Structures are given as C-alpha cells and as structure tokens.
Write the structure tokens for this entry.
Amino acid sequence: MSSPFEYAPAPESRSIVDIKPSYGLFINGEFVDGHGKAFKTISPSTEEVLSEVAEADEADVDAAVKAARRAYTRVWSKMPGRERAKYLYRIARIIQERGRELAVLESIDNGKPIKESRDVDVPTVAAHFFYYAGWADKLEYSGFGNGNPQPLGVAGQVIPWNFPLLMLAWKIAPALACGNTVVLKPAETTPLTALLFAEICQQADLPPGVVNIVTGAGETGRALVSHPDVNKVAFTGSTDVGRAIAKAVAGSAKKVTLELGGKAANIVFDDAPIDQAVEGIVNGIFFNQGHVCCAGSRLLVQESVADEVLERLKRRMSTLRVGDPLDKNTDIGAINSAEQLARIRELSDIGEAEGAGRWSPACDLPSNGFWFPPTLFTGVTQAHRIAREEIFGPVLSVLTFRTPSEAIEKANNTPYGLSAGVWTDKGSLILHMANQLRAGVVWANTFNKFDPTSPFGGYKESGYGREGGRHGLEAYLK
Amino acid sequence: MSDTRIDVRKTYKLYIGGAFPRSESGHSYVVNDTKGTFVANAALASRKDARDAVIAARKAFGGWSAKTAYNRAQILYRIAEVMEDRRPQFVEALRQSEGLTAARAQKALDEAIDRLVWYAGWADKITQVVGGANPVAGPFFNLSTPEPTGVVAVLAPQESSLLGLISVVAPAIVTGNTVVVVSSYARPLPAVTFSEVLATSDVPGGVVNILTGSAATIAPWLASHMDVNAIDLTGVAGDVELATALEVAAADNLKRVRRAPAAEPDWSVDPGIDAMTTFLETKTVWHPIGV
C-alpha cells in the first residue's frame, strides 16, 4: 500500500565518487597486485558489480607484515608522539574534507542509507582519528605501561562489513597513536572505503608501511592473525570466528582483543516515555538494517504496557522507508549480501515455524538487490531460536516481563553480553538495572550511541578488550 | 615406659563452599617436606570436585560482587589479621614446603601478609583508577566502571606456595570475582592453612575454593568449563604445551586468560594492577542530558 503522501526521490549524486575497475593490495604505501584470485565487490542494493578487488594470499600477507615491521622498526616506533599525532590529525582532516565521497562510497558498497553513512559513520570516523591523535603524545598519562608505555609492534586487524570505515577507524587510530603499525583486512563484501582510506594515507604522506590494507576473505584473515610476526590481533566479527582466532593465537605471545556478537535486551518499563522508547526501539534494531552487534534485538516490555508499546511500534514501523541507500529519505537500506539475507530469512522462518507471530508493515521492496522488510515477532519466549541467536538483520523479537528482577533474569539469559537498553523515568531503577545487567554498554533512555571517548566491548562471549576511550589504548600498549 | 610421643598425622581436605569435604574421588596424596620426610596427606581433587567448586563459586558471586568495596576491603584486611594470629602454623608450613630457614619463612610470611593488606586497600580504589567519566560530544552523561568478570579459575604457582598464592588469589577476589584455586601440587600446606584462615575470617563460603592436587589433571576441566569466565594459568609456568592446550580449551566460551609466564615470576616485586584488571570488565552506562 502506498502512502498518500509519497516522497519524491532525493538521490545523492554518485558523481563525487570515482570507483576504479580494479584495485590492488595496499602494501608499503603502494597498490600492488595480489597473488590470489581477484574477486568482485557488488552494490547490495542493485547487485551491480562495482569493482574487482585483489585477494591476498599467504605470501601477500607476509609481504604486508614485512612492510609493517620495517616501518615499525625504522620509522614509526622511533617517531616522537607529537609527530605521529600530526599524521593522525592530517588523516582526520582529510576524512572530513572527503566526507561526502566516503559516505557515498560506503552507502554504495555496504547498502546502508546515506543519512547514516553521512551523519553517523563518517563524522564518527573523523572524530576517532582526532581523539586518538591527541593521545599519541600523552601516552605516559594514560595509566598503562607503568609510566613508560611502549607499542607492541605490528597489529593484524580484521574487520566486518557492517561499519567498514568506522571499524577501520576503531582499529587503526589507536594502533597508530600508540606507535604500532598495522595490516588491516576489510571484509570481502565491503573493501572499497578501506581502499579509499589507503589513498588518504598516501595523501597524508603517511610513511610507507605504517598502514597496509590486504583484501580477501576468511583465508586472508586466517593468514594474517596467525602470522608469526604479528604482535597484536584485533578482530571484530562473529563469535564463531572469534573463538577460532582465540584458539589460533593460543600459546603465542600475541595480545588479542575480540569484539564479537550480541543479543541485546532493550527493556521498556511501564513508566517509560513511550514515544521516546519507541524511537529507541526502532533505532536499536533497525539502525544499519540491524547489522549491528549491539543491536537491541530482544525487546523486553513490561506486560502492563506491552499492547500500547506494540501498537505504537507498529505504527512507527509503518513509516519506515526501505529502499535506495543513496536516497536521503531512506531509513532502511539493503541487506549487505545474498548470504546474510539467506540467514535472516532462515532464522525468521524458524521463528514462524516455532510459533512466534510475525509482522512487517506493508512495504514495497526493490526487485534487484538484497532486501528484507523491518520485521517483529510477538509471543516470543526464551526458548525460541530467534530470542537466542544473533540474526544480524532488521528482525525484532518481543518478550514481556512483570518485575525488574524478571527483566534482569531474561536479559542476562544469553551467552552474549555486549549491550543492553533500559527505558524508565525512574533514576534509581535505571541505576539498579545498569548494575545488574551483564553487558559492556548500557544505554538508558537512549540506544546505539557511540563516541570516541567511550569504551565499547563485551562481557562473556561477546569478546574481550575495549575499544574507544582511554581504555582502547590498553590493547595497543605494553 | 618410653617418653616418645607418636604424633598425630594429618590428612587435609579440600575447601569448597566454605566447607572442608574430602575429595569425591576418595583419593589423597602424600606430601613430603623438601627433605623427603612425610608431612601429611592432602586430598587429590577430581573433576567432580572442580565442578562442585565452580558451582560454589558461582553461587557466591552475586553476594560477593554486590558487597560494597569498603566491605570487601575490610574482609581482605581481616584475612591478613587472622594470618597474623596463625603465624607459627604458616611458618612451619613454609619451612616444610619450601625448605626455608625459620628467619626466611618469617620473612616470606611477612611479605604474604603485607601483600594481602596491599590488595585489601585496592578494593575501594580500583574503580576510581580504571573507571571514569567520558566527555562525550553530545548531550549525554556517560560513565565507565569496572566490574568483576565472574568465576575465575586460578592455577596457583608451584614454587611460591604462600606469597605466590596470595599474589594470584587476592587480585581476583578483591574486585568481586570468586575463585576456584588449584594449589601448588608439591607444596599444598600453606594453601591448606590459608583455607583454614579463610574459613575463620569473614569471607563468605564459596568466594575462595581451594583444590589441592594436580593442575595438569584438574585444569583441563576448569579451562573447558562453560560457567568459568576466566582463567589464570600462572601455575603451569614453563609448560608451554599444557598452557597452550588450556588456552585453546578456554576459547570455547571466550574466557579471559592470564597467560602462563615462561618461568615463575619474582613475587617479591611490586605486582602492579594488571592482575586485577585482567579479571575486570568495563561497563559504560549512557544517559541523555536535558530530555
């Protein structure tokens, strides 16, 4: 059903971005061919082939690590912090200057709406480089390294496809600020902004080898994290891969941080401001198509207001606009890949088969590309797979509770512990819930907020270590 | 009539959930002093004992972690007080276990007690040192605070049977974790004596559980236990193969791991705060301002 108040299309221009027909690996300050079989990266919203990207094999990864080691030993670890800082400030400024270009490219390659890449991802990326730039010459005040903090060496970093550029910033900015050099592998479905970032490194005259980008899939990542000359492994992605990495580095001296999956509870009490809570629920699960490890994928709503919350939530969901990521009016973009779409469909079908009530607003989906409508399930219990497993898509499971202790018990009943949300007008209840929830980030009367100054990371099987803030330095210092 | 008195030989037990059970397996092993003379029998902990200890530690976690830091500090200080009361027993245990002279055993005990006092003082300071308010660029109030990781399996050092033991147990519990400790295999007596101190201090049952026996046997069960949140591998220092296997097993539920050092560290140096922060999580709580 189309709305009587249709919006005219408002597409952002693609002309600002120049996508090359093929890209090499970025090693020692230059683009070089990879030895693996080149792969294609496509636009998830149209399935259009955007470019061919080199795949790094073991030899390529080795070359990148060698370049990083050389740059570490000869240049970067010797450079005074205040000089390293200036390079990071330069990078931050270039990101701001080329912000529109980065945002458009991110939306094309990832499928996320331009209003998010433009207003959230890219500004936060620049902010991260600014924040950590300032730490580079103040590390002795960080509280780490017993007054004489030292870099670890070469960092091998593997990042996911949900926030390609933001995850790059979370990994590279603190690593470089602390004096490490890096080899970073972006996800195989979203390599383009990392390659544009490589150009930014060139533009900033960053010494060759300080940042190296190797593209590829799982095998490339495996070669990187298990490379014997890598001193530090940082990974963001699925819990299964995190487990495999933890095993791969066992017995080595590599320092590791893992930022893994989540199944956050977003808890709404009956005294919550309902309209704000509904906005928070929508933001919690439909932001970035639900491709968020800390997404509020389990709504726990107090029984007395469940009907009202659901009614308003459905009304609000009916106004969400799904479609062209480059349209400035789009709220929900494309699912990142055919594979991810298949997983979302499979788990949703299981939810239905297990007896939960499925609902989506009427919405027209484009015929090409990978799309999934915003969806909620009612009548979900803790035994349902959709309440236990990370779906990583725009799918919300709704459960109810009566008392705060029941909410806490349900919220904590998961092997994950990344994030949680609490909605209530009562301050003492917020603090009580925040204390009891076993999660690394608790958003009270808000959700999905990020800031470079604030540590982020999980409890339990959501991984270990923190990124962001002063705490984020610890992972890159000895 | 001979005036030779036959001494009363001791068979020590485990310390689980504040009680002193025998090993479920019924096994014990002989503890000799450094000259090879029989000293006592110690319980040989089994897999079931390890699991019981984890259950006890989990049960104690909620209460212990919820205590005020001030209260936990007092309880740790109280342990030190009770240790002072039992000086002769600890000195004897150290002489037998580590072959120390009386003077050196006294000094080792002093250091162990002082270390406990040092850690006691951290209970209500660590939050201020490693937590803080974050200057978010927006109308939000946000605080990061450390919280205990949960149940920590601790493989105590093999050589330093008291100072080493205190140096791995105190940092884990002072921040609110509960622990299952595998004591030194060859030198369990100071750990046993320590468990008697714990039982008569104000430490709630289950906060510290002490298993005497072989780390090589018990540790794999603890490392793969899905309700253990972290593991300290100090006790298998130097055994790279075992340490690696334990670290691999620990990856199953992404336990926090304090890796085994190449050799047993010098426990007399300032320990720093790493032993505490390894078993802490950081929780960041956000709230909007002005809405």
About this structure: The mean pLDDT of chain A is 97. Chain A has two domains: 22-260+461-474, 265-451. The CA atoms of residues 411 and 465 of chain A lie 22 Å apart.
